[in-house]
């Protein structure tokens, strides 16, 4: 597995080693020792999540104000545009975002450390999204940064979904602006 830097210092792209043969492929999708070496951290994961979404669905941008979750995210079917936003007020990259395509084709993963907001836009007919988190779900602490906050200005590839607006949950339609975050 390789780690590639991004525009946000501790957000990393992880590229697994894929062993293909006539039967298909094998890869280690997670290895604690390798993860620790590549990220320089000792995070332990306590929860695995799996969501399926249709084209044009946008989930996010979510974070937990307490019990912040680090997330190791990947796509096993289809393709998404995945985004992390640095909302750590003391960070030199506060307010900046990083995004990339995660897909079953490129097998890429994104490591999103605790304290950032995270979300994705589905580009394929459907997408199966799997991720590990470093702390438990805590709905009482969950919040949403507005996907279209002009101060963050995420360049979502909405042209690729062939619809006027992404499909958002009621909760995500009520996202906060960056300047409103606690
Ligand atoms: C996240 C989560 C949700 N749920 C329940 C709560 C709701 O009844 C239902 C759907 O929840 P929600 O609409 O918040 O699911 P997503 O919009 O996919 O939320 C996720 O979306 C973006 C991509 C993220 O980065 C977060 O990990 C996560 O917030 O699952 C649970 O029981 N456990 C959980 O860990």
From TrEMBL:
Q: Does the keyword Lyase apply?
A: no
Q: Which Pfam families match?
A: dTDP_sugar_isom
Q: Which reaction does it catalyse?
A: dTDP-4-dehydro-6-deoxy-alpha-D-glucose = dTDP-4-dehydro-beta-L-rhamnose
Q: Superkingdom of the source?
A: Bacteria
Which GO molecular function terms does the record list?
dTDP-4-dehydrorhamnose 3,5-epimerase activity
Give the UniProt keywords, A-Z: Isomerase
Instruction: Pull one GO CC term from this UniProt entry.
Output: cytosol
Positions of the catalytic residues = 62 (proton acceptor), 131 (proton donor)
| SUPFAM superfamilies according to UniProt | RmlC-like cupins
What is the name of this protein? Answer: dTDP-4-dehydrorhamnose 3,5-epimerase
In its UniProt entry, the species of origin is given as Brachymonas denitrificans DSM 15123
């Amino acid at each position: 597995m390789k780690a590639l830097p991004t525009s946000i210092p501790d957000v990393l792209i992880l590229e697994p080693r894929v062993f293909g043969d006539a039967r298909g492929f094998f890869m280690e999708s997670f290895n604690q020792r390798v993860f620790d070496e590549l990220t320089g951290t000792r995070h332990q994961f306590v929860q695995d999540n799996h969501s399926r979404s249709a084209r044009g669905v946008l989930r996010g941008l979510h974070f937990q104000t307490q019990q912040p979750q680090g997330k190791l995210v990947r796509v096993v079917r289809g393709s998404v545009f995945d985004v992390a936003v640095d909302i750590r007020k003391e960070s030199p990259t506060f307010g900046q975002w990083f995004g990339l395509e995660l897909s079953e084709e490129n097998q890429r993963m994104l490591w999103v450390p605790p304290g950032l907001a995270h979300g994705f836009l589905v580009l394929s007919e459907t997408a199966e999204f799997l991720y590990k988190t470093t702390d438990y779900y805590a709905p009482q602490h969950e919040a949403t940064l507005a996907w279209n906050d002009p101060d963050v200005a995420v360049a979502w590839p909405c042209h690729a979904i062939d619809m006027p607006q992404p499909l958002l949950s009621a909760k995500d339609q009520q996202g906060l602006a960056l300047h409103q975050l606690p």
